[in-house]
Specification:
By secondary structure, the protein is mainly beta. Helices cover 9% and strands 67% of the residues. It is elongated and about 65 Å long.
């Protein structure tokens, strides 16, 4: 976990340095959300209660015009009961129907979780509403509320009574959650 946090910190510095050329058009979003699981459906079972989790992500955004921004990002998600770790890479788009410093906006994140020895793979879709509260010229608070869909792929291993692997099946879960969080925009 320390390695992931150090990597994200370095990524923040790199993104801010790279995006500094167009200071008013480029910015970095850092968000953390609580995920309230509604239900999770598997190829083999369904869970309808006790689901929770959180995510932490960072995205480099570029203002295409006064109302539309787009960018790319990375994150880490930890989902509980059952437990999964996902490292998503995503594209984020934000649209504001109102031109003002303090403004509501709609957003969408679409991406895919990288499957490694410590993380599960799967499609990510996160849509919702945000509210940007501008505190300084290059600093704002970001409030988020949305719908979070995470697809999870993994191998389900079955063991015999002797402790030997008897069968391995591919499983595919889809977790539906409400997300609420806070973040910063630099």
């Amino acid at each position: 976990m320390k390695t992931i946090l150090k990597s994200l910190f370095v990524l923040i510095i790199v993104l801010k340095t790279v995006l500094a050329c167009g200071q008013d058009k480029s910015h970095v979003h850092i968000d953390s959300n609580y995920l309230l699981g509604l239900y999770e459906k598997s190829d083999f079972w369904t869970i309808k209660s006790g689901l929770s989790g959180f995510d932490f992500n960072i995205a480099g955004m570029y203002d295409i015009n006064r109302r539309l921004s787009a960018g790319i990002g990375v994150g880490v998600e930890k989902l509980y009961d059952p437990s999964y770790t996902i490292l998503p890479v995503f594209v984020k788009v934000a649209y504001s129907p109102i031109r003002a410093n303090e403004r509501p906006y709609v957003f969408a994140k679409v991406g895919y979780g990288i499957g490694t020895g410590i993380s599960n793979a799967g499609l990510l879709l996160n849509t919702g509403l945000g509210y940007k509260l501008q505190l300084r010229k290059l600093f704002a608070l970001n409030f988020l509320l949305g719908y979070h869909l995470q697809s999870i792929r993994y191998d389900l291993t079955y063991y015999s009574d002797a402790g030997v692997i008897s069968d391995v099946k591919k499983d595919h879960n889809t977790r539906h959650s409400l997300s609420g969080g806070i973040g910063f925009i630099f």
